[in-house]
Task: structure prediction
Amino acid sequence: MAVGPTPLPAAAAAPAALPAVETVALRKDFGEIHAVDGIDMSLPPGRIYGLLGPNGSGKTTLIRLLTGLASATSGTVKVMGVQMPSRVNLARIGYMTQSDGIYPELSVWENLSFFAALYGQMDGTDLHRTLELVELDTRTGTPAQNLSGGMRRRLSMACALAHHPDVIFLDEPTVGVDPALRVQFWDHFHRLAANGATLLVSSHVMDEADRCDELLFIRDGHVLAQGTPAELRQRAGTDNLETAFLSFASEPGNAAPAASAATVPTASATTSPKDSVR
Amino acid sequence: MNPRRVAAVFRRIVAQFRRDPRSLALLYVAPLAIIALLGWVLSSQQSTATRVAVIDESGHAAGAAVVSNLQSALEAQPGIVLDRSVADDSTARQMLKDKTLDVVVVLPPDFTVQNRKIDLLTLGLNPTAEASALPAIQKALISAATDSALGSVLPSIDRVTLYGSPNATQLDSLAPVVVGFFAYFFVFILTGISFLRERIGGTLERLLATPVSRAEIVVGYSLGFGFFATIQVAIVLAFVLGRLQIPELGPIPAFAIGLGVHTSGNPLVAYLLVLVLGLGAVSLGILLSTFARTELQVLQFIPIVIVPQALLTGFFWPIEQLPSLLQPVARVLPVTYAIDGLRQVMIAGADLTSPQVLLDLGVLTAIAALFMILAAATIRREVA
Result:
């Protein structure tokens, strides 16, 4: 279904490298709704992948399947070559959920050290470095409920990164984060990727897309298109990624076998560019 | 099971709970307040004097003799105040209605030496309270009959009990029940709400994305809440069993802290029973939080889960007195076994060598283990 397993130009590491994330015919149904509708993908390590699509397109469900939090209706998921769900393998995975997933009564430090301890990461100096990274090192004692929304987001990210995972799933990480800090986040994402980590960042905001090494346009549980931002622009014949998304969405093959059913996501696909104008 | 991860969950719960003064108060102050109130109510109930009048409608000398005997016997009874001013039936009835009399003893017109029938007249609004006055009157009747001219001699009765004291008050028998019930109730409510917060707040999702196992979560929770339940039980037991007399101090009258309930058993065994019960309550809270979407819905479990336990587990009535259909229900409820064990220990003075106590402890452990397994099974069911 996906647009080719993508022969990538110079995928950093040796071409024989095991894909960091691999799915085969992955499918998740909620009753009548096909939230993830047969996705095949193979993502080589050491890159940042952007998962782009309108609200309700299946991004979060896909990430939950990749982490093993949801069980697939059919198909398989492998992360770092290990079949998911695998509890042991979760130690190599970082996951930043869309909701902050932190304890409001606990302080910044207590939240971070709690999650880190579950991953077996008990190195206090290293944890402190993680806090410096998200600029919360001066707030270690503040209860999370007294933090601003952006700070909570940063704490949530620190909790996902503290154990230095190989594969990092970030579900809308930059929502509510101010522009200056957002730039820092992306710089850090690139540093992590340069050190060999694989990042899958979901977003419905197109202006972040250009910061990714590779994009996956997703709608109705399908991957509409996959490639570098430049490739996708070129293929769609436009400079604008939003227009590119819409152009892929209206391709005959993608105009959905369910075109007659006129499902909700068709409507949300048209609203997505609006969402992205912020 | 990785002890470091269990310890992390435990530490987190302790830290969270310390920051939550309201829940701390619920756990530590509320039971003491309720038990103190209960002790107060039950103790003052015993000191109320019963106001009694005797009316003679028989109209013959034998009747008059009985009345005068009865009156002096009643006056000799502690807890009874005799009103000699009332002479006729209708005045007495009016005084009952006005609540200036509690019981009227009537020798009816057909009273004879052969037909020794006496009427007892009460208001009938509160049968239990009225019945509590009757033993004293019966005692008076017996002593009146014994030395009356009627001649029949009745034996005097001395009550002896196998366990505890024959003078044991209602409070003495209720205390074990109250201790067990509070541990169960408050631990259940607190765990239920706190685990529900994990479910709806997104932290459970986050937890399950770490290598922590479901069993580690349940055990960590049990240790965390078990720790606070332990302190609660210690405080409640100390309050129920101990009694500290505070002397009069200026305008403050003398008063006592603690109920000073008499126990013949080892408080440590009682403690063990309540602790195992509390561990079951932690897992039940986790389990039932699956079926709630809001904190209010957790509270809605109180009438479904908690109140039936209060009615069926021997809190108010012995299980043997329950309708036969309800008895099997009572026998699967954990509080039943805790209450039975606590009564064995606190009233009968049983210890860990008693097969009855060991059975109760065994059943409680089994129920707690079952709840733990069920709770762990519900945790990964969030696929939303």
Observations:
- The beta strands of chain B are 50-56, 80-82, 103-107, 119-121, 244-246, 255-257.
- The first helix of chain B runs from residue 3 to 18.
- The longest strand of chain B covers residues 50-56.
